[in-house]
Request: fold
Amino acid sequence: MPKFLKSGKVVVLLTGRHAGKKAVIVKQYDEGTAARPYGHALVTGIAKYPRKVKTRQSEAQQKKRMRMKTFVKVINYNHLMPTRYTIDVDLKSVVTSDVMENSSKRTEACKASKKALEERFATGKNRWFFSALKF
Reply:
């Protein structure tokens, strides 16, 4: 069976607090680890999507509406739904497996991933990733 869950692949989370939210796979563990003996992935995603921006809004208002909130999680493959989309954001240096052990490291990783994703949103690429699913 080919391995299609690679880093950069956009997935939709199916269970938990962030169910229905889009995320990007940062690192995949197909064979599992000692702590988690099942296939899982380290993902970062958008917990709160940016809102619609109009040109008649002030610069400060536009900047505020373009903000988003991110999360970093380790998710079982059974709770991910892959999409056909990929996004090329370099998050491997920021979000690593040791980030999950310490809450202060996790918040720093969330802030760094938020900055990277907001820069990507500002360029106007990957519009589908930055819009909420309607269901």
Summary: Strands lie at 9-13, 22-29, 40-48, 69-76, 80-86. The mean pLDDT is 90. The radius of gyration is 15 Å. The first strand starts at residue 9 and ends at 13.
